[in-house]
């Protein structure tokens, strides 16, 4: 059975994007980027909503093979090699190594969890909130940047109530602190 993890970069005040929808968080430099590359290689399936998928499509570009730094090219390879399931009612097609689903996310993910070994990663606050309400997320990973955005898209959706227990912390490059939690029950 797979372990489902919701993992996002956040500001100290709990936002994954600023008030205008822009990311607003510092771009990961080499050491932090390598951490994310290593995590991407451990993922069996990446679950994303439409907005997160559209942001991450940047890594599907053939230019990512030749442009940027080695750590960026490495992440692009890991992203493309990871199977993705995109939950959207508006998209009509998705790119390489991705499958589009517009049905019930809870039922689909419950089935995936029981049929998959390894790690299933959730990207995007709205999809994560749906799965959290269904009790499907096994771990929450908040990568806290020492930045305050003052508003925007929160890591935890408004109205979502969870009781969590700490799993640990880790200090990373660029002043980022990884906070790990699991559901208390």
From TrEMBL:
<protein>
    <submittedName>
        <fullName>Dihydrofolate reductase family protein</fullName>
    </submittedName>
</protein>
<dbReference type="InterPro" id="IPR050765">
    <property type="entry name" value="Riboflavin_Biosynth_HTPR"/>
</dbReference>
<dbReference type="Pfam" id="PF01872">
    <property type="entry name" value="RibD_C"/>
</dbReference>
<dbReference type="InterPro" id="IPR024072">
    <property type="entry name" value="DHFR-like_dom_sf"/>
</dbReference>
<feature type="domain" description="Bacterial bifunctional deaminase-reductase C-terminal">
    <location>
        <begin position="3"/>
        <end position="177"/>
    </location>
</feature>
<dbReference type="InterPro" id="IPR002734">
    <property type="entry name" value="RibDG_C"/>
</dbReference>
